[in-house]
Amino acid sequence: MRSRGEAVTTPVSPVTAISTSNLTKRYGDVVAVDQLSLRIEPSEIYALLGLNGAGKTTTIRMLLGMARPTGGTVSVLGAPVRLGGHAVWSRVGYLVETPAAYPELTVIENLQVAGRLRGSTRAGAVEEVIAQLGLAPYADHRARTLSLGNAQRLGLAKALIDRPEILILDEPANGLDPAGVAEIRGLLHDLTLEHGVTVVLSSHILTEVARLATRIGILDDGRLVKEIHASDLAAQARPRLGVTVRDPAAATTALQAAGFAPDTNGEGGLVLSDERAVRQPDLIATLLVEAGCPPTRLAVEQDDLETYFLDLVGASPAGAR
Ligand code: ATP
Q1: Does the beta carbon of 68 lie inside 6 Å of ligand 1?
Q2: Which of 160, 183, 226, 266 has the greatest number of CB atoms lying within 10 Å of its CB?
Q3: Chain-centre distance of CA 312, in angstroms?
Q4: How does pLDDT run along the chain (321 residues), one tens digit per residue?
């Protein structure tokens, strides 16, 4: 994936890139988006993460003025978004749901049309996005012959053709293999770091957004249940030592006296997050035996990120609704 290799031409806006306040959308009895308040700063890669039906697409459509909110407000680059309003659209690139292309036109022709529709007359724009998205081998292929992954790349290329300040992408990794996801990550990071672009994307796969985004907002039933920095996600998946003993109080005292900080796991057991305990469970076993509280169970445990996410939205097999 090549960088643009040119200086930033669009000034980075000093204002919040996107903000919503109590944004709500109802379809009859269904509350698709429920009082959503977001604040996304310039150069962030913000991911809306949620299961199918959580309200991601509806939110994105409201950010783009494609769906009318039932309540609340959206502003993009400091300007309120209105249904069908065009004020900020020249500064926003987007890819919503299945990327539509003219099937009988080639990749190049599709991009030329996209550029013209956006009023972009910049020389070299088509070649630039073809190189950015690795589409050169398919430049003369008709859009209908593209694989799902390459169709997605074409959709992204169209979103980028006018060098937007904000990029709003619904499920951008759809149809891409792991190498394709890594390529897109490289592209998005390059756009944010070198060109100050702000990215909002949606996904239903936590491991995918953990790699793509800098911050994640978890949506469940239209509500924002948690926001987390991608760097803090690693802590959620950190290994710990689970210990079961007959007398947790005595074991806690013995462990504390030895400089450990045991926690209870809510089920009568103890949990140790200290790296020393995780690396040397035998040390803990010896210590507990010597304190007269031999462990009946000792195991290094680690949540994977998907379990963490499913627990948060109450959809893990153990906590199924
Ligand atoms: P997915 O990943 O499946 O696209 P999502 O998180 O994008 O899910 P939305 O498509 O925003 O979720 O849908 C949120 C809720 O709103 C769902 O219950 C959906 O059935 C409902 N919904 C969305 N659009 C409409 C519509 N046009 N009319 C009626 N209900 C709708």
Answers
A1: no
A2: 160
A3: 15
A4: 444 444 444 544 468 999 999 999 999 999 999 999 999 999 999 999 998 899 999 999 999 888 999 999 999 988 888 776 665 677 898 888 666 788 999 999 999 998 888 877 778 999 999 998 889 999 999 999 998 888 888 999 999 998 899 999 998 888 788 888 888 888 899 889 988 999 999 998 887 888 889 999 999 999 999 999 988 877 777 788 999 999 999 999 999 999 999 999 878 899 998 889 999 999 999 999 999 999 999 999 877 777 777 777 776 554 333
50 C-alpha to ligand 1 centroid (Å): 11
Q: Per DSSP, which regions of the chain are E strands? A: 18-27, 30-40, 45-49, 71-76, 79-80, 92-95, 166-169, 198-203, 215-220, 223-229, 240-244, 263-264, 270-272, 297-301
Residues in contact with 218: Cβ distance below 8 Å, sequence separation at least 6, in sequence order = 49, 50, 224, 225, 226, 227, 228, 309, 312, 313
Is the shortest distance between the CB of 32 and ligand 1 below 6 Å? Answer: yes
Considering only CA atoms, which residue is closest to atom 28 of ligand 1?
Answer: 27
Give pTM, 2 decimals.
0.77
